[in-house]
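Good morning C.,

I know you're traveling, so I'll keep this short. The sequence:
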Amino acid sequence: MATVQAVLRNKKNSHDKYPIAIRITKNRRSSFIYTGQYIEKKLWDKVKCKVKRSHPNSAHLNQLILTRVSEVNSKLLESEISKEYKSVQTIKDNIQNKNRHDFYSVAELYLANLRNRKQFHRYDNEKSRIERFLEFTKHQELPFNSITVNLLRRFETHLLHKKGLAFRTVMNYIIPIRTIYNLAIAESIADRNNYPFGRGKYQIKFPDSEKVGLNVEEVQLLENAVGLTEAQQHALNVWLLSFYFAGIRITDIIQLRWSDFSDYRLHYRMSKNDKRVSLRIPIKAKLILNIYRESSNDSEEFVFKELRNTDFNNAKQVRTRIKTTTRNFNRHLKRIAKNVGIDKNLSMHIARHTFGNISGDKIPIQMLHKLYRHSSITTTISYQANFMNDEQDEALDKVVNF
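The tokens, ready to paste straight into the viewer:
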């Protein structure tokens, strides 16, 4: 008789979190079905085989685990009664419905993992890209050995010339194809020898993108802007706070609570990479915060109104509200830029570029790495290279100014 148990696998990801899996054991052989969920090791109850209550989403995660264990047990019972499946691997294959070994089936698994991890924005984008690829191939089934360099290049040409997409956007369509192919290889569904990506085959390359930030004079124009509507002033306040706090992202700034401010510092956890950030509150930021503080006495309340009364157990609702808020802010910011005479495309994300542009060569790269909280200093160097021009400007002057 096979046994089923929820476990935390000892293979952490880049964020130091560990995957929750369902272990199937038969005849002392085990196989694992992954739930797509990751947590910190300290939040796993090894005795009860469940997520500890101290995890903010423990109820939902434990319900997911219970559902998966129930599904696996149901399939196992069918297997034991029919005696059709003998090995633990064939039982796993039956549970995961791996009778189809084509791109379609693995793509469904890939999208399901994104949905289970509540990465709804990425799920929507990847789903539409995968559907366009499948529409292009016009096949009911697509074996992995049919995904060739020639097919990928024809798909690229189709997107560039028939659909009129930019080259960078086209690469974003190719990436999920490569990801799904890698997943198929990891699951022993696809043959690595047929892999169409890499040197000498199809290479995914992104063109250099230009990051544009405001300069000091343009920020001062925003700081001194007058005659704004209430909604415009609110959007500008959020933008300025983002800039004052080293380019904090819109997703993070509108989730700030008053409890995140203490001892004259801002303490928050970045949603993109889950890293803790602690920044001193600049005087300019304090003046703006005081405006909002006057209307709130609850330390757990959000600083800004946009996400109040949001169900944070509903990730899709949270994502939709953040997306709507960002769109509204950007619309107001564009009008403000036009009114004060800024001809750059002002948006919430430009606040981060503006911090990079003004910091330029003034701040050591190691300090910028701390402020940005990039996972790697290489990322910081690559990012800041867009704004560090002093040395090359001086080198140019030495040659032409004679």
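Safe travels,
E.
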